[in-house]
Design goal:
- The chain is an alpha+beta fold and about 300 residues long.
- It has two domains: about 230 residues, Rossmann fold; about 60 residues, OB fold (Dihydrolipoamide Acetyltransferase, E2P), CATH 2.40.50.140.
- Helices cover about 25% and strands about 35% of the residues.
- The protein has a six-stranded mixed sheet with strand order 6-7-8-3-9-10, sandwiched between helices. The protein has a five-stranded antiparallel sheet with strand order 13-17-14-15-16, with no helix packed on it.
- A hairpin with a 2-residue loop joins strand 15 and strand 16.
- Helix 3 packs across helix 4.
- The longest helix has 18 residues.
- The chain is globular and about 75 Å long.
- The two termini are about 40 Å apart.
- It binds adenosine-5'-triphosphate (ATP).
- Adenosine-5'-triphosphate (ATP) binds next to helix 1.
Protein backbone atom coordinates (compact mmCIF):
# COMPACT_ATOMS: atom_id res chain seq x y z
CA UNK A 1 0.00 0.00 0.00
CA UNK A 2 1.24 3.43 -0.96
CA UNK A 3 -0.67 5.60 1.51
CA UNK A 4 -2.26 4.24 4.66
CA UNK A 5 -4.48 6.07 7.12
CA UNK A 6 -4.54 3.98 10.25
CA UNK A 7 -7.26 4.86 12.71
CA UNK A 8 -7.15 8.65 12.36
CA UNK A 9 -9.30 10.49 14.89
CA UNK A 10 -9.88 14.13 15.74
CA UNK A 11 -12.41 15.94 17.88
CA UNK A 12 -13.10 19.58 18.54
CA UNK A 13 -14.50 20.55 21.94
CA UNK A 14 -15.58 16.98 22.62
CA UNK A 15 -17.33 16.74 19.28
CA UNK A 16 -15.87 13.99 17.12
CA UNK A 17 -15.02 15.30 13.64
CA UNK A 18 -13.20 12.17 12.42
CA UNK A 19 -13.64 8.83 14.13
CA UNK A 20 -11.11 6.01 13.75
CA UNK A 21 -10.66 6.36 10.00
CA UNK A 22 -8.90 3.56 8.12
CA UNK A 23 -8.15 4.00 4.42
CA UNK A 24 -5.56 2.69 2.00
CA UNK A 25 -4.59 4.11 -1.37
CA UNK A 26 -2.62 2.54 -4.18
CA UNK A 27 0.04 4.50 -6.00
CA UNK A 28 -1.49 6.64 -8.74
CA UNK A 29 -5.02 6.17 -7.46
CA UNK A 30 -7.59 8.96 -7.24
CA UNK A 31 -9.82 8.45 -4.25
CA UNK A 32 -12.65 10.83 -3.47
CA UNK A 33 -13.85 11.48 0.03
CA UNK A 34 -17.54 12.18 -0.38
CA UNK A 35 -20.04 13.20 2.25
CA UNK A 36 -22.35 15.95 3.47
CA UNK A 37 -21.15 19.21 4.95
CA UNK A 38 -19.53 18.73 8.35
CA UNK A 39 -18.88 14.97 8.00
CA UNK A 40 -15.13 15.36 8.50
CA UNK A 41 -13.75 15.49 4.96
CA UNK A 42 -11.60 18.59 5.35
CA UNK A 43 -10.35 17.50 8.76
CA UNK A 44 -9.21 14.20 7.23
CA UNK A 45 -7.36 15.99 4.46
CA UNK A 46 -5.73 18.39 6.93
CA UNK A 47 -4.47 15.49 9.02
CA UNK A 48 -2.84 13.94 5.96
CA UNK A 49 -1.26 17.25 4.97
CA UNK A 50 -0.11 17.83 8.55
CA UNK A 51 -2.08 21.04 9.09
CA UNK A 52 -4.23 19.52 11.81
CA UNK A 53 -2.53 17.12 14.21
CA UNK A 54 -4.34 13.81 14.58
CA UNK A 55 -5.38 12.93 18.12
CA UNK A 56 -4.70 9.31 17.43
CA UNK A 57 -3.83 7.17 14.46
CA UNK A 58 -1.07 7.26 11.88
CA UNK A 59 -0.38 8.44 8.34
CA UNK A 60 1.99 6.05 6.58
CA UNK A 61 3.42 6.93 3.17
CA UNK A 62 5.50 4.31 1.34
CA UNK A 63 5.94 2.49 4.62
CA UNK A 64 7.20 5.60 6.44
CA UNK A 65 5.29 7.09 9.35
CA UNK A 66 4.86 10.79 8.53
CA UNK A 67 2.31 11.47 11.28
CA UNK A 68 4.54 13.97 13.08
CA UNK A 69 6.33 15.43 10.03
CA UNK A 70 5.59 19.18 9.67
CA UNK A 71 3.45 20.09 6.64
CA UNK A 72 6.25 21.78 4.68
CA UNK A 73 8.37 18.64 4.95
CA UNK A 74 5.63 16.23 3.87
CA UNK A 75 5.75 15.17 0.23
CA UNK A 76 2.15 16.33 -0.16
CA UNK A 77 0.65 19.34 -1.93
CA UNK A 78 -2.69 20.77 -0.94
CA UNK A 79 -5.26 22.88 -2.73
CA UNK A 80 -7.37 24.46 -0.01
CA UNK A 81 -10.98 25.44 -0.42
CA UNK A 82 -9.83 29.05 0.00
CA UNK A 83 -6.89 28.53 -2.47
CA UNK A 84 -4.52 30.61 -0.23
CA UNK A 85 -2.64 32.21 -3.14
CA UNK A 86 0.14 34.72 -2.57
CA UNK A 87 -1.78 37.90 -3.27
CA UNK A 88 1.25 40.12 -3.95
CA UNK A 89 2.55 37.83 -6.71
CA UNK A 90 1.43 37.32 -10.27
CA UNK A 91 0.18 34.07 -11.76
CA UNK A 92 3.47 32.50 -12.88
CA UNK A 93 5.21 33.52 -9.63
CA UNK A 94 2.51 31.75 -7.67
CA UNK A 95 2.72 28.61 -9.76
CA UNK A 96 6.52 28.43 -9.60
CA UNK A 97 6.82 29.37 -5.92
CA UNK A 98 7.32 25.85 -4.57
CA UNK A 99 9.77 24.94 -7.32
CA UNK A 100 12.24 27.51 -5.95
CA UNK A 101 13.13 25.08 -3.20
CA UNK A 102 14.08 22.42 -5.73
CA UNK A 103 17.41 22.56 -7.49
CA UNK A 104 16.16 23.74 -10.86
CA UNK A 105 17.50 26.33 -13.27
CA UNK A 106 15.30 29.41 -13.72
CA UNK A 107 14.47 28.50 -17.30
CA UNK A 108 13.46 24.98 -16.40
CA UNK A 109 11.39 26.24 -13.49
CA UNK A 110 9.49 28.72 -15.67
CA UNK A 111 9.08 26.07 -18.35
CA UNK A 112 7.38 23.70 -15.93
CA UNK A 113 5.19 26.48 -14.57
CA UNK A 114 4.11 27.53 -18.04
CA UNK A 115 3.33 23.98 -19.04
CA UNK A 116 1.06 23.64 -16.03
CA UNK A 117 -0.60 26.99 -16.77
CA UNK A 118 -1.28 25.75 -20.25
CA UNK A 119 -2.94 22.67 -18.81
CA UNK A 120 -5.30 24.69 -16.63
CA UNK A 121 -6.00 27.09 -19.51
CA UNK A 122 -4.42 30.19 -18.01
CA UNK A 123 -1.26 30.71 -20.04
CA UNK A 124 -2.50 34.07 -21.31
CA UNK A 125 -2.71 35.32 -17.70
CA UNK A 126 0.90 34.41 -16.96
CA UNK A 127 1.84 37.90 -15.75
CA UNK A 128 -1.45 39.00 -14.25
CA UNK A 129 -1.55 39.79 -10.51
CA UNK A 130 -3.64 37.07 -8.86
CA UNK A 131 -5.80 39.60 -7.00
CA UNK A 132 -7.15 40.64 -10.40
CA UNK A 133 -8.40 37.15 -11.23
CA UNK A 134 -11.91 35.77 -10.78
CA UNK A 135 -12.53 33.15 -8.11
CA UNK A 136 -12.55 30.36 -10.65
CA UNK A 137 -9.29 31.55 -12.20
CA UNK A 138 -7.67 31.73 -8.77
CA UNK A 139 -8.82 28.21 -8.11
CA UNK A 140 -7.09 27.06 -11.28
CA UNK A 141 -3.85 28.85 -10.32
CA UNK A 142 -3.98 27.03 -6.97
CA UNK A 143 -4.39 23.73 -8.80
CA UNK A 144 -1.46 24.47 -11.11
CA UNK A 145 0.68 25.50 -8.14
CA UNK A 146 0.02 22.19 -6.38
CA UNK A 147 0.33 19.92 -9.41
CA UNK A 148 3.56 21.46 -10.68
CA UNK A 149 5.27 20.12 -7.54
CA UNK A 150 4.57 16.57 -8.71
CA UNK A 151 3.85 15.63 -5.08
CA UNK A 152 3.67 12.06 -3.82
CA UNK A 153 0.17 12.80 -2.64
CA UNK A 154 -2.07 15.55 -3.97
CA UNK A 155 -4.76 16.76 -1.57
CA UNK A 156 -7.66 18.60 -3.17
CA UNK A 157 -10.38 20.18 -1.03
CA UNK A 158 -13.42 20.97 -3.19
CA UNK A 159 -11.10 22.26 -5.93
CA UNK A 160 -13.86 23.11 -8.38
CA UNK A 161 -16.44 24.64 -6.07
CA UNK A 162 -16.06 28.14 -7.47
CA UNK A 163 -16.42 27.27 -11.13
CA UNK A 164 -19.59 27.34 -13.20
CA UNK A 165 -21.13 24.03 -14.27
CA UNK A 166 -19.54 23.99 -17.72
CA UNK A 167 -16.04 24.85 -16.54
CA UNK A 168 -16.37 22.41 -13.66
CA UNK A 169 -16.94 19.57 -16.07
CA UNK A 170 -14.05 20.64 -18.25
CA UNK A 171 -11.68 20.99 -15.28
CA UNK A 172 -12.81 17.66 -13.89
CA UNK A 173 -11.58 16.02 -17.05
CA UNK A 174 -8.36 18.07 -17.06
CA UNK A 175 -7.55 17.16 -13.46
CA UNK A 176 -8.18 13.53 -14.20
CA UNK A 177 -6.02 13.63 -17.35
CA UNK A 178 -3.10 15.37 -15.62
CA UNK A 179 -3.42 13.17 -12.53
CA UNK A 180 -3.30 10.03 -14.66
CA UNK A 181 -0.55 11.27 -16.91
CA UNK A 182 1.69 12.18 -13.99
CA UNK A 183 0.48 9.22 -11.92
CA UNK A 184 -0.15 11.43 -8.87
CA UNK A 185 -1.84 9.68 -5.96
CA UNK A 186 -4.76 11.97 -5.16
CA UNK A 187 -7.30 12.48 -2.41
CA UNK A 188 -10.20 14.52 -3.67
CA UNK A 189 -12.67 15.99 -1.20
CA UNK A 190 -16.11 16.81 -2.51
CA UNK A 191 -19.74 16.88 -1.44
CA UNK A 192 -20.81 16.64 -5.09
CA UNK A 193 -21.76 13.03 -5.79
CA UNK A 194 -21.74 13.45 -9.55
CA UNK A 195 -18.22 14.83 -9.40
CA UNK A 196 -17.07 11.93 -7.22
CA UNK A 197 -18.71 9.36 -9.48
CA UNK A 198 -17.16 10.76 -12.62
CA UNK A 199 -13.60 11.47 -11.50
CA UNK A 200 -12.66 8.71 -9.06
CA UNK A 201 -11.05 5.30 -9.11
CA UNK A 202 -12.73 4.72 -5.75
CA UNK A 203 -15.01 6.69 -3.47
CA UNK A 204 -14.95 6.75 0.33
CA UNK A 205 -18.34 7.85 1.62
CA UNK A 206 -18.24 9.55 5.03
CA UNK A 207 -21.01 10.32 7.48
CA UNK A 208 -20.56 11.89 10.92
CA UNK A 209 -16.80 11.33 10.91
CA UNK A 210 -17.06 7.65 10.00
CA UNK A 211 -16.62 5.70 6.79
CA UNK A 212 -19.87 4.29 5.44
CA UNK A 213 -18.46 2.56 2.38
CA UNK A 214 -15.36 2.47 0.17
CA UNK A 215 -15.66 1.19 -3.36
CA UNK A 216 -15.55 1.93 -7.06
CA UNK A 217 -18.12 4.46 -8.35
CA UNK A 218 -20.14 1.60 -9.84
CA UNK A 219 -20.13 -0.35 -6.60
CA UNK A 220 -21.24 2.50 -4.37
CA UNK A 221 -23.92 3.48 -6.89
CA UNK A 222 -25.25 0.01 -7.73
CA UNK A 223 -24.62 -1.76 -4.42
CA UNK A 224 -24.79 0.84 -1.66
CA UNK A 225 -23.83 -0.65 1.71
CA UNK A 226 -26.32 1.41 3.69
CA UNK A 227 -29.43 3.47 3.33
CA UNK A 228 -27.31 6.58 3.89
CA UNK A 229 -25.06 5.76 0.91
CA UNK A 230 -28.04 4.87 -1.27
CA UNK A 231 -29.69 8.21 -0.55
CA UNK A 232 -26.57 10.34 -0.65
CA UNK A 233 -25.32 9.05 -4.01
CA UNK A 234 -27.82 9.70 -6.74
CA UNK A 235 -31.60 9.58 -6.33
CA UNK A 236 -33.38 6.48 -5.16
CA UNK A 237 -36.92 5.23 -4.42
CA UNK A 238 -37.66 3.08 -1.41
CA UNK A 239 -40.54 0.73 -2.15
CA UNK A 240 -42.25 -1.69 0.17
CA UNK A 241 -41.21 -5.24 -0.75
CA UNK A 242 -42.53 -8.55 0.51
CA UNK A 243 -43.00 -8.59 4.30
CA UNK A 244 -40.36 -6.51 6.10
CA UNK A 245 -38.34 -5.96 2.90
CA UNK A 246 -37.64 -2.54 1.49
CA UNK A 247 -36.65 -2.31 -2.15
CA UNK A 248 -34.35 0.49 -3.25
CA UNK A 249 -34.75 1.31 -6.93
CA UNK A 250 -33.00 4.02 -8.95
CA UNK A 251 -35.28 6.25 -11.07
CA UNK A 252 -33.68 5.06 -14.31
CA UNK A 253 -34.45 1.43 -13.46
CA UNK A 254 -38.20 1.97 -13.52
CA UNK A 255 -40.17 1.82 -16.74
CA UNK A 256 -43.49 3.48 -17.36
CA UNK A 257 -46.35 2.23 -19.52
CA UNK A 258 -50.05 2.93 -20.03
CA UNK A 259 -50.95 -0.71 -20.52
CA UNK A 260 -49.33 -2.90 -17.86
CA UNK A 261 -46.95 -2.96 -14.91
CA UNK A 262 -46.75 -3.88 -11.25
CA UNK A 263 -47.80 -0.55 -9.75
CA UNK A 264 -50.51 1.85 -10.79
CA UNK A 265 -50.00 5.56 -10.22
CA UNK A 266 -50.82 9.08 -11.34
CA UNK A 267 -48.29 11.58 -12.61
CA UNK A 268 -48.05 14.52 -10.22
CA UNK A 269 -45.28 16.50 -11.86
CA UNK A 270 -42.64 16.29 -14.56
CA UNK A 271 -39.24 17.91 -14.92
CA UNK A 272 -37.44 18.01 -18.24
CA UNK A 273 -33.64 17.97 -17.80
CA UNK A 274 -32.48 17.54 -21.41
CA UNK A 275 -31.18 13.96 -21.54
CA UNK A 276 -34.20 12.63 -19.66
CA UNK A 277 -37.46 13.66 -18.03
CA UNK A 278 -38.11 12.96 -14.36
CA UNK A 279 -41.72 12.05 -13.60
CA UNK A 280 -43.02 12.23 -10.04
CA UNK A 281 -45.63 9.51 -9.84
CA UNK A 282 -48.09 9.22 -6.93
CA UNK A 283 -48.63 5.58 -5.95
CA UNK A 284 -51.03 5.37 -2.96
CA UNK A 285 -49.31 7.61 -0.37
CA UNK A 286 -45.81 7.54 -1.94
CA UNK A 287 -44.17 9.56 -4.66
CA UNK A 288 -41.90 7.57 -6.95
CA UNK A 289 -39.35 9.21 -9.21
CA UNK A 290 -38.99 7.79 -12.70
CA UNK A 291 -36.42 8.91 -15.27
CA UNK A 292 -37.47 8.44 -18.87
CA UNK A 293 -34.74 9.02 -21.49
CA UNK A 294 -35.59 11.78 -23.95
CA UNK A 295 -34.85 9.37 -26.78
CA UNK A 296 -38.07 7.54 -25.94
CA UNK A 297 -40.84 9.07 -28.00
CA UNK A 298 -43.60 8.75 -25.42
CA UNK A 299 -44.29 11.78 -23.24
CA UNK A 300 -46.71 11.87 -20.30
CA UNK A 301 -48.39 14.74 -18.53
CA UNK A 302 -49.63 15.50 -15.01
CA UNK A 303 -52.81 13.55 -14.11
CA UNK A 304 -52.03 10.77 -16.62
CA UNK A 305 -52.54 7.32 -15.12
CA UNK A 306 -49.52 5.03 -15.65
CA UNK A 307 -48.17 1.59 -14.75
CA UNK A 308 -44.68 1.23 -13.31
CA UNK A 309 -42.38 -1.79 -13.54
CA UNK A 310 -38.99 -2.36 -11.99
P1 LIG B 1 -17.60 20.96 4.47
O1 LIG B 1 -18.01 20.12 3.31
O2 LIG B 1 -18.71 21.83 4.95
O3 LIG B 1 -16.31 21.66 4.30
P2 LIG B 1 -16.36 18.81 6.02
O4 LIG B 1 -16.94 17.47 5.76
O5 LIG B 1 -15.10 19.13 5.34
O6 LIG B 1 -17.44 19.93 5.74
P3 LIG B 1 -14.95 19.38 8.47
O7 LIG B 1 -14.53 20.75 8.06
O8 LIG B 1 -13.93 18.33 8.48
O9 LIG B 1 -16.19 18.90 7.60
O10 LIG B 1 -15.62 19.48 9.92
C1 LIG B 1 -16.06 18.34 10.65
C2 LIG B 1 -16.66 18.81 11.97
O11 LIG B 1 -15.66 19.41 12.80
C3 LIG B 1 -17.75 19.85 11.83
O12 LIG B 1 -18.76 19.58 12.76
C4 LIG B 1 -17.05 21.16 12.13
O13 LIG B 1 -17.96 22.08 12.67
C5 LIG B 1 -15.99 20.74 13.12
N1 LIG B 1 -14.77 21.57 13.01
C6 LIG B 1 -13.95 21.64 11.95
N2 LIG B 1 -12.92 22.47 12.20
C7 LIG B 1 -13.08 22.95 13.44
C8 LIG B 1 -12.34 23.86 14.28
N3 LIG B 1 -11.20 24.42 13.86
N4 LIG B 1 -12.84 24.12 15.51
C9 LIG B 1 -13.98 23.54 15.96
N5 LIG B 1 -14.70 22.68 15.22
C10 LIG B 1 -14.28 22.37 13.99
Amino acid sequence: MYLQLMGLSKSYNNITAVDDLHLELDKGELLSILGPSGCGKTTTLRMIGGFTPAESGKVILEGRDISTTPPNLRPTATVFQSYALFQHMNVIQNVCYGLKFQKLGKKEMLGQGEEMLEMVGLKHYRNKPVNQLSGGEQQRVALARAMVMNPKVLLLDEPLSNLDAKLRQKMRKEIRDIQKELGITTLYVTHDQEEALSISDRIAVMNHGRLEQVGTPRTVYNSPASRFVAEFIGRINFLAGKGEQILAVRPERITMSEVSGSLLGTIAQKQFTGAYTTYFVRVSDHTIEVDVPSLEDREWNPDDVVYLSY
